[in-house]
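Known limitations

Files may contain more than one protein. Parsers should not assume a single record per file. Below, a two-record file is shown to illustrate correct handling: read the sequence, read the token line, then continue until end of file.
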Amino acid sequence: MGDFYQNGIITTLHNLKQRPLEAMEDELRKFSKTRPMALVLPSLFSELEGDALPNIVNELSKVDYLQEIVIGLDRADEDQYRRALEFFKPLKQNFKVLWNDGPRLRAIDQRLKDEGLSPMEAGKGRNVWFCLGYVLASGQSQSVALHDCDIVTYDRSLLARLIYPVANPSFNYEFCKGFYARVANGKIHGRVSRLLVTPLIRALKKTLGHYDYLDYIDSFRYPLAGEFSFRTDVITDIRIPSDWGLEIGVLSELNRNYANNRICQADIADTYDHKHQDLSAEDAEKGLSKMSIDISKALFRKLATNGVVFNSETFRSIKATYFRIALDFVETYYNDAVVNGLKLDIHSEERAVELFARNILEAGKRFLSNPMEKPFIPSWNRVTSAIPGILEDINAAVEADMADFQ
């Protein structure tokens, strides 16, 4: 059971009494009559063959307040797309599967490339971006939730608690970030959030001084959570990164576009576990190593837009300050684990801190060497201005794929 403490400048909606799911779903059904809801699921085909997604589909089949479910399918050939359509048939809602590697959506992507508007790299960010474009194109929903497809501890209460703040017509929230304790199988997980993001934010505060943006990011209990919800009008002008900076980038865009009282975070699960990335200490282009570089660059870019001037000496100071703060956090988390009867390997934790410290410097070098890097995917407002009718074309392509292969 969570406490009621409000930390930072973002409203926290706690799970104080384990409210019955049926009562919350009954309210959501009422909300759906005036504020239709959608769910976006960015998925790799390989996740259809895992343990998590079959259970997610089973749980979602019991949800009756969603207007539509939009599934973005990556890394799938034609046979795998057909199999995906069968896989998702147990869903009782109106669902659409975007075959991102199919010829119709590839042709649309080529039109975007010709205008310099296509996502720069494949990945979750690109998948989410196309799904959000389809949500705009379908025009059926006013509130949207998004969560990952590898949550092995999933039950439908997660969705209810996630979408409730933006679905309730009496609330004024435009965006809700989910949070949870990353504890599973007797261990504390979430290394990148615990050992990179939080100590790096504290180090940036110490070396650069006070910035409202740093207070804002530091207010989120789990800034890297892949679960969030929003009003549909958020989609039109948000720019999201195509790399591992997706979650930080989304929070940064909300900070740019909305007042803090229009943003909240909600406790959505008592336990949460999903697929874990390797540390990949030997390869900076994979796993948590690449993730730490992309996230660090996302923070540096945002601070630069706020007027911060970086140089090599600045990044060396940030790295040294981060390293000391992060090592202190290792002791804190170890003590927390012991009190709760959990395991935490100090050696592996400090190895992660050492890698993240090196990668903060690497991220700084890459930032200085390529200050004109454009990691953000253009907003849908810009895309529709450059290519009028593109949303209708996306809608038609998805409908045609579903009709031809279902």
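...continuing to the second record:
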Amino acid sequence: MTSQWDYFLKNLGQWQGSFTSLSPLGEVREDVKSILTLEGFNNNSTVRLVLQRFPPNQPPHELKLEFTSLSRSLLFCETGAFSQGSMQWSPFSDFGAELSLIDQDRRLRLVQLFNTQGKFNQLTLIREKLAGTYPPEKPDLTLEQLLGKWVGEAITISPDWYSSEPFPTELLIERTTDNRILQQLTWGKGDQRRTMSSSAIIDGSRLLFDQSNLPVQILLLPDGASSNCPLEIKLGHSFVLEVGWLIAPTRRQRLIRRYNEKGEWVSLTLVKEEKTA
């Protein structure tokens, strides 16, 4: 049986890219070049991480870490995609998570952070490629690229490393008026099949789902990326943190970190989907 450590090893290599800081509304604040090296030692029983960042007009910043085991706040999927972050949200504490997707020689990572009042206040988009490769970066994501029917398959992993059987997903996104979309998500098999509908206001590259107890926004970002999270977290309401990546015009991945109404992290879901209409 493949282990979490084996999935971690799919991220080995030197990843060249940048850390782009954005406002909660998706406005670019700063872009910093980066090199992240993950190297295995002792027959890959130890992994060394070296992160170098090169802020403009400043000395380089360097971070070094070694791993011989994995934190319980970190989960990997079979592709090498992963998420790490807070295991529990509570009032008056900082909170956030990183979500990372991988496709051949490219990685796309997203860090979503919330302040001590539970308000979404910082977003970092990290775009990387393996050294010695030259895959093109995707254009900025647009709503038109997302409209239509997406059919896929998902696997959910719990923090105790239990993995579900693959289950089907279906996502329909359609424009209902000039400034609003309707989204319908269906998932599961047989008696476990569920459907959820939601509506959002279109505000440029921002989709605001304003009809739920926790208003949620999706930001359409560079490199085909999207960020999905609540604008504010409140006790008693479940929520998700999600990154999406349009890898090709009809192929997309999403990684979803789910929290229950007590603020407890309960699962990580990887969705691979194809546009069919």
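Parsers that stop after the first record will miss the second one. For reference, the second record is described as follows. Residues 4-275 form a domain with the Lipocalin fold (CATH 2.40.128.20).
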